[in-house]
Design goal:
By secondary structure, this protein is α+β, with helices and mostly antiparallel strands. It has one domain: PPM-type phosphatase domain (Phosphatase 2c, domain 1). Helices cover about 25% and strands about 25% of the residues. The protein is built from 10 helices and 15 strands. The protein has helices spanning about 70-75, 80, 85-100, 100-115, 125-130, 200-210, 270-275, 280-290, 295-305, 355-360, and strands at about 5-20, 20-35, 40-45, 50-60, 160, 160-165, 170-175, 180-185, 190, 215, 220, 230, 250-255, 260-270, 320-325. The strands form 3 sheets. Strands 3, 4, 5, 6, 7, 12 and 13 form a 7-stranded antiparallel beta sheet that branches. The protein has a 6-stranded antiparallel beta sheet with strand order 1-2-15-14-8-9. A two-stranded antiparallel sheet has the order 10-11. A hairpin with a 6-residue loop joins strand 3 (about 40-45) and strand 4 (about 50-60). The longest helix is centred in the N-terminal third of the chain and has 15 residues, at about 85-100. The radius of gyration is 20 Å and the shape is globular. About 45% of the residues are buried.
């Protein structure tokens, strides 16, 4: 069977929730793949004023535990306490990446894994980690120990991460990899993230400067992503900072001022985007919303729409995860597009990358 099953697993994990500001639905499906390596996070009430949503597309196995704790990493950040949400998001990506590196990270993950999921926690870590407990108090100052994992540089597996933080009218999107965030504004799709593929100029330049190469669209002929959490084999240059490694976890971060024209947000792994463009997905969702009010049901229909009838082409055969976040009416209408003409549908059959949704407070370009 190779990487594909003889018949797809179409059972779905779906969930709905809401608070006074947002309503969300999500669904995930293994599909044709032999394993499920997507994961997600949905916390409409991260705290009293903030919502957090994220999708994660793992590769190589062994890193899905990271997908359960980024919201915790954000909350623990001093920058978050100080109201600097952008820095808090960036540091949470670096913290997750650090957890994948060596003995200290695996030990801390073991503790967190115990608390979050006793069945799928870090079994390897549980075998040799001297610490246990419920993980309520995490100590970052682990003492170094000799042992079978003391020289472990980190797993060869990794994961994309695309997360959205919503506080009042402010929306922040942080992305590393090729999962994608799209917003629907008056029916028009706007990308709030970009797919970090090796052929992008900024990614190619960083990869080459760090001593890597690109072959057949893959970093060092292996990884078809230019940014990811984990994948430590591409982060071994001790003379370069983390943001300049061949592959980096450094996220692009975009900040958008929400307005009454904003209808919903979609976060999805590339299993969806391989089959539908951003605009096609937004159009499909609008069609479903005319008869469906349960957002997870809309997500399920998207997954069914994308699932391939066979593995002949490869498209529609990946794991699929999608989160849809619907904005409830705001008190004020503040549009970020008032000084820009609306793009006509003829300009693109896929999606529109609006400058006002990309440029403000965009951070962390690799150079």
């Amino acid at each position: 069977m190779g990487v594909y099953l003889s018949t797809p697993k179409t059972e779905k994990f779906s969930e709905d929730g809401e608070n006074s500001k947002v309503k969300y639905g999500l669904s995930s499906m293994q599909g044709w793949r032999t394993t499920m390596e997507d994961a997600h996070a949905a916390f409409p009430d991260l705290d009293d004023s903030t919502s957090f949503f994220g999708v994660y597309d793992g590769h190589g196995g062994g890193c899905q535990i990271l997908c359960k704790i980024p919201s915790s990493a954000v909350l623990k950040s001093e920058a978050y306490s100080a109201g600097d949400l952008s820095t808090a998001l960036q540091k949470s990506f670096f913290r997750m990446d650090e957890m994948m590196r060596g003995q200290r990270g695996w030990r801390e993950l073991a503790v967190l894994g115990d608390k979050i999921n006793k069945f799928t926690g870090m079994i390897e870590g549980l075998i040799w980690s001297p610490r246990g407990g419920d993980g309520n108090e995490l100590d970052d100052n682990w003492a170094f120990e000799d042992g079978p994992h003391s020289d472990f540089s980190g797993p060869t597996s990794g994961s994309t991460a695309c997360v959205a933080l919503i506080r009042g009218k402010q929306l922040l999107v942080a992305n590393a990899g090729d999962s994608r965030c799209v917003i629907s504004r008056k029916g028009q799709a706007y990308n709030l993230s970009r797919d970090h593929k090796p052929e992008l100029d900024a990614e190619r330049e960083r990869i080459l400067r760090a001593g890597g190469f690109i072959h057949a669209g893959r970093v060092n002929g292996s990884l078809n992503l230019a940014r990811a959490i984990g994948d430590m084999e591409f982060k071994q240059n001790r003379f370069l900072p983390v943001e300049k490694q061949v592959v980096t976890a450094n996220p692009d971060i975009k900040t958008v001022e929400l307005c009454d024209d904003d209808e919903f947000l979609v976060l999805a792994c590339d299993g969806i985007w391989d089959c539908m463009s951003s605009q096609q997905l937004v159009d499909f969702i609008h069609e479903q919303l005319s008869t469906e009010t349960k957002l997870s049901a809309v997500c399920e229909k998207v997954l069914d729409r994308c699932l391939a009838p066979s593995t002949a082409s490869g498209e529609g055969c990946d794991n699929m995860t999608m989160i849809m976040v619907q904005f409830k009416p705001m008190e004020q209408n503040v549009s970020a597009l008032t000084d820009k003409e609306e793009p006509s549908p003829s300009e693109s059959t896929s999606e529109v990358d609006d400058p006002k949704l990309q440029e403000p407070k965009q951070q962390n370009e690799s150079s």
